[in-house]
Amino acid sequence: MAYYWFKAFHLIGVVVWFAGLFYLVRLFVYHAEAYQEPEPARTILKKQYELMEKRLYNIITTPGMLVTVAMAIGLISTEPEILKSSWLHIKLGLVLLLIGYHHYCKRIMKQLAKDECKWTGQQFRALNEAPTIMLVLIVLLAVFKNNLPLDLTTWLIVALVIAMVASIQLYAKKRRKDKEKLAQSELQPELASTSVE
Ligand code: HEM
Questions:
Q1: Structural domain of residue 88, as residue ranges?
Q2: Do residues 155 and 74 both lie within one domain?
Q3: Atom 14 of ligand 1 has which residue's CA nearest to it?
Q4: Which ligand 1 atom is at minimum distance from the Cα of 94?
Q5: Per the structure, how many domains does the chain have?
Q6: Residue 16, ligand 1, Cβ within 6 A
Q7: Residue spans of alpha helices (H) in 56-144
């Protein structure tokens, strides 16, 4: 019975951890874009994002990671023979990468707070695809274990996931371009009136 409790809370931890990781980097996108705003909006937005990032990291993301890992230790301690499975070794390698990504986000957070981060909103959007890939790979390994199929269905699903990620990026790009066009068209009448004066 303990095994099921550990597994249930392991999965709850995973959901919380990933919710935190995804939202944190989305906040980095807004934070980086706030640099283009005029004052005083820039300073107000930067302070607000800094606070939101700190709270999200400390109250959601890091506890999510700790619950996931603690419950995983519980799972392994109730069934130690699982440690011999090769799928778990690969999964542990991917989880180590994920923990590295988690700490890298903390570094970016500190750089943003000190105005030392040179990343653009677009670069943060691309960075946010990294946990998506790790999530897909880790869940596939956890579910299929040593029997991960490499048949046509699997490749079709992989292609579908890639197409979904690409279309989200393209849609975001289109929205940004539309916004820029709108801002320019709002600015042009002002320019025209200043040149007449
Ligand atoms: C320290 C890191 C981790 C360890 C040692 C670990 C270990 C384990 C173990 C031993 C199980 C039980 C497998 C079974 O009952 O068959 C499990 C289940 C699971 N883990 Fe993890 N895990 C870790 C992190 C993660 C992460 C980061 C994710 C998601 C991205 C994840 C997703 C899952 C899923 C979906 C299951 C349920 C699989 C099933 O019942 O079929 N795990 N994990």
A1: 2-145
A2: no
A3: 142
A4: 27
A5: 2
A6: no
A7: 62-78, 86-113, 121-127, 129-144
Same domain, 139 and 176: no
Rounded percentage of the chain residues whose pLDDT exceeds 70? 94
Contact assessment for residue 124 and residue 25, using Cβ atoms and an 8 Å cutoff: yes
CB 56 within 8 A of CB 27: yes
The helix, strand and coil proportions of the chain, stated in percent and rounded to the nearest 5, come to: 90, 0, 10
Q: How far is CA 132 from the centre of its chain?
A: 7
The predicted complex's ipTM stands at: 0.92
- Residue 15, pLDDT score: 98
From the CB of 142, is ligand 1 less than 6 Å away?
A: yes
Q: State how far Cα 10 lies from the chain centre.
A: 19
Do 128 and 98 lie in a common domain?
yes
Report whether residue 82 contacts ligand 1, using a CB cutoff of 6 Å: yes
* Burial class of residue 6 (count of CB atoms within 10 Å of its CB; 0-12, 13-18, 19+): buried
Average pLDDT, stretch 6-14? 98
No. of helices (H) and no. of strands (E), the chain = 7, 0
